[in-house]
Design goal:
The protein is built from four helices and nine strands; from the N terminus they run αβαββββββββαα. By secondary structure, the chain is of the alpha+beta class. Strands 2, 3, 4, 5 and 6 form a five-stranded mixed sheet that branches. β2 and β3 form a beta hairpin.
Amino acid sequence: YEDAKQNCISKGEGTKFTGRLFEPQTAIENDYVAEAAGAYLPANPDFWIGIRTEPTERKFKFESGREIFDNWSPGEPSDSDDGEDCVDIQKKRHWYWNDNNCSQKWGSICEFVPVPCCESKSCRKFNDRYIYFESEKLSYENAKRNCISKAKGTKFKGQLFEPQTAIENDYVAN
């Protein structure tokens, strides 16, 4: 799973898009994209998609942090092999979701989304970084968590702003 995830991220590098594992928004979108992938790679009709859970939680979410809709294969998620924390789709399951061990080797379906906030007034691009301005008043710890969550599902690491030079500090402050 992690290999597939990193593969998708790398495919977006150097573009205006962030690569990530496919996060279907509807069952129709799930089936349409999965059928296209299955037709393109008929010998390997099993694919990782961007849904996983933390082992202690067993609450599956999209990699971007959004809630998922219900598209599970009957009897899933089962965690039958203990540690089935990642989600794949398989042709033999009619493209319904299956929880699986993250170390399995499957194909991957990638999608590309615009780089976060680059068109927003609450965000500025500086060199190769995006600086996001949050208007909500938060404690320091919650501000850190908020920054991390803003970058979830992207190739970026969210963190509180750490100016490296006075010029960088002035650029963001003005």
